[in-house]
Structure formats: structure tokens, C-alpha cells
Design brief:
Shape: elongated
Helix content: 25-40%
Order of helices and strands: HEEEEHH
Largest sheet: 4 strands, antiparallel
Structural class: alpha+beta
Number of helices: 3
Number of strands: 4
Distance between the termini: 35 Å
Strand order of the largest sheet: 1-2-3-4
Radius of gyration: 18 Å
């Protein structure tokens, strides 16, 4: 136990240790706005699932999956996201397979 804190008490954290408490929601809102600007629509049953023509986008915290029949559709969207990277302050890397999603192997 750290000194200076009461024992046998529960403390409420008013702010995240590293960022604001609402940072994940703000990041999601920026991502949603960016996807909607590109024509994606959020699924009503699951707001982390976005659909646009032949492309499906799934996001979980800071990981995402793209699904499409044609790789060209995904490549075009990835390029536009990389161009917006500075504007939205996000970094994108590509994994080789779905096993890379969430770090699960």
C-alpha cells in the first residue's frame, strides 16, 4: 500500500492516470465521424460495426478489422486513413492475419 492513502477504503478515481476519463469516447467519436464522412454507417445493434458498400469495418478499443471481397477497396480506404493520420492523431499498422487482432495467437 502506498503511504498517505487510507487503509480499508475505496477511492474513486476522478481522472485517468494517463489521459482524461472520456478519452476512449472522444477517440471513438473522431473515428465514427471520419468513417461517416467516407460514407460508412454504424450498425444500430453494435455501434462498433460499420458498413459501407462492400466493406465492413469492426473496431474494438484500438484494434480494427476490415473485410471486403476485393483488397483494392480496403487499400483505398487505408490510404485515405493514412492521409488523415495527422489530422486525427492516429497511427495505423497492418497485421498479417486475423491472429494479430487483439494480440491473440
Amino acid at each position: 500500500m502506498m503511504s498517505g492513502f487510507p487503509r480499508n477504503k475505496v477511492l474513486k478515481l476522478n481522472k485517468s492516470l494517463y489521459r482524461q476519463v472520456d478519452a476512449p469516447r472522444m477517440r471513438y467519436n473522431k473515428l465514427r465521424d471520419s468513417l461517416e464522412a467516407r460514407g460508412f454507417t454504424a450498425c444500430k445493434a453494435d455501434p462498433c460495426l460499420f458498413i459501407f458498400k462492400k466493406v465492413v469495418y469492426i473496431v474494438y478499443v484500438d484494434d480494427c478489422l476490415w473485410f471486403a471481397r476485393d483488397r483494392k477497396d480496403i487499400d483505398a480506404l487505408l490510404m485515405s486513413f493514412k492521409e488523415d493520420g495527422d489530422k486525427y492523431n492516429w497511427e495505423m499498422t497492418e497485421g498479417d492475419s486475423m491472429e494479430d487482432f487483439l494480440g491473440i495467437k
